[in-house]
Structure formats: structure tokens, C-alpha cells
Amino acid sequence: MSVDTDAIDAARLMAEHKLPGLLVLDERGEPKAILPASQTIKVLVPAYVIEDPTLAAVVDAKHADRLCQALAGRCVGDCLSSKAAPPPVADPDDTALEVAALMAQVRSPLVAVAEKAKDGTHLLGVLTASHLLHELLGTTGVVSPK
Length: 146
Hints:
Elements: H1 7-17, E1 21-25, E2 31-36, H2 37-44, H3 47-51, H4 61-64, H5 76-79, E3 89-90, H6 96-106, E4 110-117, E5 120-128, H7 129-140
Helix pairs in contact: 6-7
């Protein structure tokens, strides 16, 4: 996703694929930030409900269905927090444990995998926390209790 992508398209992608967030790329195609699904939801919820969650009980279903209109006309860049930090970037040669340590250190649900070159950063892909957990559990032979 780029900062100019339609916010509704980004929200649909997260919902359809049950993603914890999306990696947002800048104008050069380099990792800029992570748009967490929770931040997208925050854009949908009226400020008065965030300030006083008890007011959510008085919003009827008809009005709740209109919440997605808050994304209309917005782009992904508009939904990013002003405090959005650059996303964590792992090297393609990093081990699963190295990526896990990076993810844990910055508390991110996503890690970009990219090669850094003289002409910029070349994105190779994105790892989610759930994918990483799957890999770590599979390689360690951890068996869940029955």
C-alpha cells in the first residue's frame, strides 16, 4: 500500500485477509510506516465515543453501519498516526529468531523484509507476527497440549 491508496481499499484488504496491519510505502516505494488495523478502526469511531465509550451503547445499528463513511475520500496517509515510527526492516538473510527479536523489540505486528542498496531500499516482502509464530512453532517442534 502507498500513502496515496484509498483508505477504504486498505480497510477492505485488512478485513478480507484478517491482517493485523499494512506496510505503507512512501512515494519512492520504500517502507514508510505501518498502518495497524486498530488505527483504521480508530478513524471509524467518532471522537466523542472514544472520549466516552459508554456513548457507544446509544448509537443504533443504523448509525453504526455508517461508520465506514469516515474513510470516504481519505487515503492511507491520512489514517497514519502523527507519531507513526518507521517500520522495522529485516534483512533477507535474517533468521526467524532475529526477525522475532526485532518484532518484539519494536512491538510491531509486521516486519518489512528488504535489501538496502545504494539506490534505495528494495522491498522483498512482509512478515506478520502470525506467520512468524507459525514458523517458530513448526521449527521447534512445539506440540500443543490436548
